[in-house]
Amino acid sequence: MLSAIPVLAVLGCAAQTAASKASYRYASVTDNYKGQYGEVVERDVCVIGGGASGVHAAVSLKDKGKTVVVVERLNRLGGNTLTYLDPATGIPIDIGVVVFQPLPAVLRFFDKFKVPLANTSTLTANVPGQPANLSVPAPLYQTIQTYTDLRDGSSVNITRDDLAIGPALAGLAAVMAKYAYILDDFQALPHPVPEDLVMPFGDFMTKHNLTAAIPIVFQIGQGLGSLLQLPTLYVIKYFNLGDVTALREGYLTQAQGNNSLLYTRAASYLGPSNILLESTIISANRHSNTPSNRAELLVFTPSGSGMRLLSCGQILLTIPPTLSNLAGWDLTPDEHAVFSQFTGATGYWTGLVRGVGLNQTVAHQNVAATTPFQLPVLPALYQVAAVGVVEDVWWVKLGADTATLPDEQVKARAVREIQRVQVAQGVEATEPEWLVFDSHVPFMLHARPKVTLTRSKQ
Ligand SMILES: *[C@@H]1O[C@H](CO)[C@@H](O)[C@H](O)[C@H]1NC(C)=O
Ligand SMILES: *[C@@H]1O[C@H](CO)[C@@H](O)[C@H](O)[C@H]1NC(C)=O
Ligand SMILES: *[C@@H]1O[C@H](CO)[C@@H](O)[C@H](O)[C@H]1NC(C)=O
Ligand SMILES: *[C@@H]1O[C@H](CO)[C@@H](O)[C@H](O)[C@H]1NC(C)=O
Ligand SMILES: *[C@@H]1O[C@H](CO)[C@@H](O)[C@H](O)[C@H]1NC(C)=O
Ligand SMILES: *[C@@H]1O[C@H](CO)[C@@H](O)[C@H](O)[C@H]1NC(C)=O
């Protein structure tokens, strides 16, 4: 996946009208949990979520002299950025966020923490079939591409016209340029919403004669699921103009192949007293009937007494705004109505396994012989491929159109698909060892096209 500095708020219109509804009364957090939390944490801004957007926001706020606290569910900052460190060799392998578009904000952010970046177009990766260049980041390892249907391990003849991909990407860039405003925020959407943006992505690409680019958008846009049925808006917000340019001119990645370094340094900058890890909001009161007249959040956190009360000048929400993520929040009926319209989300899981025993110079791209554009049938691995920099270690990147698959089923499915390739290649089927596994669920929250059209009329 590619997300760099991701989108902050996705829908915000109803949240603004909510404040004017004075008739709602909420029990004060302090009343309900009196005496159960330690010292109150008072900050100008409480940032909910310690992924790329939360950390970037918190750092920028601190730079501007604001006091902040970041509340993060996991035991580390960085969200979808996760780096596996091979214990034997010390080689880092980024299994989440791999590359960044060369946006000014990205350059400034890495530069602030003296984390060096490399331009992927100027790195000398190995020649496919040759051993990995150990001085370039693991994800740039080049393999010989073959095409396999991972439903049965059979090899598939590809009918794509490679020469058409470049012109189709250029054509896609030209159409996307007309809608560049969606990269800032959805509030810039005009009314009526252009037909192009709400039509299913497959229809959009057919309409503009750009279907030759679909397989590459599918690969680069990992996590978008089957993508042909998704409203175009979501697809071209994720795989955007910057990606078309970066595919040509290079992305940026951490020079030593360790994107997590950015978040370790950012964490030191913010300071441990301003970061609550393994913490979740269990109750919220944002409606000014608190003793201090400030918003209050009650946080369940492992340190100290197990609970902390945050007193916040403002709250910045950077987590996916699903109703389950917001359980315990004092949502107004309007907010509830808006957030419940995220009826769709895709699934994306990543990891590494060891002990596959296949030929490490050959990657098996997942495709299907007879589906539209030969896209694979999800849920499935995107490919069976070795990392190259460490012996017999293999990528796991699995996508689904829903966010509901349990982790154990995802892992079992990944192993089954690897085993099908093993059997088809005449190699002994193994039970590979999991080195690391990460869920990025829920990925790509989306509303139905009809909802997108209606909301924008307000
Ligand atoms: C490996 O990559 C480094 C950095 O890009 C480059 O200087 C070196 O020449 C490469 N080695 C080989 C054998 O290609
Ligand atoms: C793929 O193409 C080759 C050469 O055209 C042909 O011999 C082979 O049978 C095809 N394989 C499949 C699975 O269609
Ligand atoms: C559609 O694109 C293909 C190249 O991908 C081109 O050969 C063809 O002429 C185009 N058709 C139209 C109607 O523009
Ligand atoms: C990366 O290198 C390419 C040339 O190979 C250049 O066109 C591009 O501007 C460079 N990107 C950055 C961010 O420096
Ligand atoms: C990569 O970053 C992680 C997290 O900051 C750190 O623990 C690890 O030592 C780094 N590894 C290398 C090889 O730089
Ligand atoms: C791996 O595959 C490559 C490309 O087909 C081949 O040249 C090489 O001999 C294979 N290696 C082994 C160990 O079979």
How are the secondary structure elements laid out?
Layout: H1 13-18, H2 29-32, E1 41-48, H3 52-63, E2 68-71, E3 83-85, E4 92-94, H4 104-112, E5 117-119, E6 144-149, E7 154-155, H5 165-178, H6 195-198, H7 201-207, H8 214-220, H9 232-238, H10 241-249, E8 252-254, H11 261-270, E9 275-276, E10 280-285, E11 295-300, E12 307-317, H12 333-339, E13 344-354, E14 362-366, E15 380-381, E16 383-384, E17 393-400, H13 407-424, E18 433-439, E19 443-446, H14 449-455
Parallel strand pairs: 1-2, 1-12, 2-9, 6-14
Antiparallel strand pairs: 3-4, 5-8, 6-7, 10-11, 11-12, 13-17, 13-18, 13-19, 14-16, 15-17
The structure holds 2-acetamido-2-deoxy-beta-D-glucopyranose (6 copies).
Strand order of the largest sheet: 9-2-1-12-11-10
Largest sheet: 6 strands, mixed
Hetero ligands: 2-acetamido-2-deoxy-beta-D-glucopyranose
Secondary-structure content class: alpha+beta
The first-to-last residue Cα distance is: 33 Å
On the 0-100 scale, what is the average pLDDT? 90
CA-based shape: globular
What is the count of helical runs?
A: 14
Q: pLDDT under 50 segments (min length 5)?
A: 1-26
Number of strands: 19
Radius of gyration: 23 Å
Approximately how much helix is present in the residues?
Answer: 25-40%
